[in-house]
Amino acid sequence: MLFTIIFTWAQVEAPHYLGLALTALTKYVEQYFNPATRATASMDDFYQALKLMLIFFILNAIIMLFTWVITSRFNAHSTNNMRENLFSKLQKMTIKYFDTHQDGKILSLFNSDLDNIFNAMNNAVFEVISQTALFIGTIWMMFRIDVRLALVTVASTPFVVILSWIIMKKARKYLDAQQDEISNLNGYINEQINGQKVIITNGLQKESVEGFKVYNKKVRDAMFKGQFYSGILFPMMQGLSVLNLSIVIAMGSLWVVDGTYSRAVGLGLIVTFVQYSQTYFQPLTQLTSIYSMIQLALTGGRRLATIEEQAEENQVPTGQELKSLEKGVKLEDVHFGYNENKEILHGINISVNKGESVALVGPTGSGKTTVMNLLNRFYDVTGGKVTFDDVDVRDLTLESLRNNVGIVLQDSILFSGTVADNIKYGKPNASQKEIEEAAKQANIHDFIMTLPQGYNTEINDENSVFSTGQKQLISIARTILTNPPFLILDEATSNVDTVTEEKIQKAMDAVIAGRTSFVIAHRLKTIINSDKIVVLKDGNVLEEGSHEELLKEKGFYYNLYTNQMAFE
Length: 568
Known about the structure:
The protein has helices at about 1-30, 45-90, 95-100, 105-125, 125-145, 145-155, 155-195, 195-200, 205-230, 235-255, 265-290, 290-310, 370-375, 400-405, 420-425, 430-440, 445-450, 470-480, 500-510, 545-555, 555-565, and strands at about 330-335, 345-355, 355-360, 385-390, 390, 405-410, 415-420, 460, 485-490, 515-520, 530-535, 540-545. The chain has about 575 residues and is of the alpha/beta class. It is elongated. InterPro entries: AAA+_ATPase, ABC1_TM_dom, ABC1_TM_sf, ABC_transporter-like_ATP-bd, P-loop_NTPase, Type_1_exporter.
């Protein structure tokens, strides 16, 4: 703030002393060429005014440099904090948000929206503050020097303000639309990249490009309109500035001619107000030139604000701690739907005692994965309850619940880093011996040792040496290392060949041994040794029992199993 005041003061004083210098020079010339006053003619006032003018110009440049350095550091720090806060917020949000929003749209918040905010903070914040102060300071200085010329200079202000407001209102509408369309485009690109193999397999590359063109055209159209309306402000201000300058010169000259001002004073005033006329319009011109940048930042800020409004996972700070699993897990009269209009689970009851393995089977859409989501409290039930050791999961702290639950997902995720880093992801302080032991139990150790760097082999999306099955085995090793008392396996053997399936099955047997577990199964032969099999259909428990018991009943499970075995 202090720098802004000094900066503004230096900028508005400099033209004043330029005018005084010209007035002093004019008086000196008049006195020098008049024999009667030649002896008293002096350049002292001119030199004094010129010296002060130069001091103010130099001071202005120095303050501007210091302010730019300080502002840049502050803005970089602020943007860094915003990025960290956004990422922290995402980590606290419910799974529902990620299930209902495209990855590309979420990424747009980090690149497009945050970048727009950073650009505005780095380039526009100082401009807005300094130019606003300069605008006010210039008006004050003009009226202090000469009211008539000041009124001439500011006469066009109401017209400028009204016209600018109309154009900026239009620009805001299209700049908001531009960011929305960029977000949609990013979502489409991310979707197409993730599905590239499917696109190539079905020969749909041309269709994919055509789809891209549709989204890209919407971005182009919105961007053109936004940039057109925001960009038209700058040349408009430039034109008004020249017009205003012409009026100031004309009126000043007229008043010199009719004797209102003396030639010396009039020349100094005209030159001074020519400077002030330009300085007066400079803030308006500068602010309109960066309007699109400011508006994009405001749009980004509004979009980020919607993230802050999103619900976070329902933490229970004073909840009970689940230290281990002593009794078992139950779903009691559980009702659930991902939206109010459609219920997925209709009052199901499932229980598993400590050390038992329960397999969930059923056709696609029967509710198997939904049960997994409720067990780990990715979602809360809409009716009934899920209990661990007879305690409702909603009364447990999320941290203690998830420390006791291990999940092996159908689509295994590997993170950037080494193989060892991925295995110890859930237990960062694990020793190398523990990592290797977990890998051996997961039947992946031998393969890892064939890699050039072994456990130190780097993993990344661009150069992955792991097949789908090997990724699954690393995921199982990760779960083994964390040693959770309760385990959920979500169709871990789907989408792999029979050899890999056998390895995964052995790894699953190792990790399940002695643990309470839910296994969501696609290939029924992998769960025939489960203590209990629960058959789900259309969100209801249809059958329940061991493999042998269900086969004897010759019901829905019997048909599923015999039909599947016919194709094995």
